[in-house]
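Format is sequence with structure; example below:
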Amino acid sequence: MDKQKIIPFPFLKDRLMELGLEHLHHHRYAEAVNLLRQANEMDPSNQEISTAYLLALYENGDFEEAKELCLKLLHQGIGDYFEINDVYIMILIQMGDHHAVVHTIKALIDEKEVPFDKLDHYEKLLQFSQTRMDNPFESRKRVDHEPLFSSKDMKENMFKIAQLANQNIYPYIDELLEHLQNEREHPFIQTMILNVLREHHFNRQVTVKKFHYDGEISLDQIKPVFETPFYLELTNFLKEKIEHENPTLFSQMKEILDRHFFILYPFELSPKNKALWAAALYGYVGKLYGDNIDIDKIATKFEADAESLANSIDFIERLEEISLPIL
């Protein structure tokens, strides 16, 4: 018997595309790949679907499959030529194929059709890969480019890091990693750097030195700042203990908590005792209002140790002294 021809549900392709883009937007890359792959199989010549599918593969770390798709799109002339080439070069860098990066960029420049606004970008990437080719067994050496932190103005440096979310970060990797290990760097800047590295799937161990903390962190194994288990546990405890009786107080305590978790990231308040830190936040806010706080009474209210509570309030005060910069 002949196989029956399967007729796709009307508008299925568009729906798959829509759902795939939604997952991509919310960083659910595996789900996005699955949906966009189906849409791409239904219409492989569709530029919008192909480009979205390529980005999903890249973000999900499926570099070999993404590389093959790039070559296919470039060969068939599907999608924006330079946009596809940009993704292709980034895939090659992720895979450590610097010979291919150099060959590709030189070919693009030789074509003399590179837009002027992209020329500097390509030249920096070319220099970066040539340096890696010349020193394949040595630690990465900084490419000769203007340092990311050339200014002492913190706001300017913050904006530069924020812009890296949509740029190639690899010419700046050494500099970024050095600032993570610099105990004198502002902890807010260090957290921004970690977030950028995570967004670019820089999945390797990095050394972070911040306050009295010093540790090796695997970026692919840490959750975003406000999704860590202890943050969620402590926030929920504050809601149960404070929000119903005093919503304004809860809001103020949570605002302080958010600042401190951001500053400390990827480390956390220690020890991981929700009652202790809830009590410390409660006591600290009381001091802000000029109250003569009773450590023993607060400790009893939250079932926390009085001596540990006093030390924790002191630590919160030190964190507040170097709190987040005002933009």
Summary: The chain has 15 helices and two strands.
